[in-house]
Amino acid sequence: MKKKLIIGVILIICILIVAATIAKTVVENNLEALSEMAIQNVDLAKISDGVYTGSYSAFPISVEVEVTVKNHQISNIDLVKHFNGQGTSAEVIPDHVIKAQT
Predict the structure, then answer these.
(1) Could you give the dihedral angle defined by the CA atoms of residues 84, 88, 89 and 93, in that order, rounded to the nearest 10 degrees?
(2) CA–CA distance from 30 to each of 8, 45, 57 (Å)?
(3) Taking the domains of the chain in order of start, what are their residue ranges?
């Protein structure tokens, strides 16, 4: 009985190690793809006034934004939802985007 318990514990530990390795690989691949993502410039002269929504999700990052365009300029960006996993917060990014208008 004791032998079966030890084998069971070892098996569970092995499964947890494999699962953690797979999860780590998925997170690293998603973060690498995000850092290499090409961001296209938008010609604001062609954008009508209004509020536009957008979202992006790649585990462990998920974000939903509302972008307000007025007089062909980005006037406001609201982070509607933001989950950054264990990364840094994104609250400073909207101000940089508004300032750069890109």
Answers:
(1) -110
(2) 33, 33, 10
(3) 1-38, 39-102
Task: Report the predicted TM-score, pTM, of the whole model to 2 decimal places.
Answer: 0.65
Q: What backbone phi and psi angles, to 5 degrees, belong to 96?
A: -65, -40
The 3-state DSSP class for residue 52 equals: strand
CA distance 68 to 50: 6
Per-residue pLDDT tens digits of the chain, which is 102 residues long: 788 888 889 999 999 999 999 988 887 887 788 778 777 888 999 999 999 999 988 777 888 999 999 999 999 999 998 887 766 677 888 999 999 988
Neighbours of 35 (CB within 10 A): 7
The amino acid occupying position 47 is I
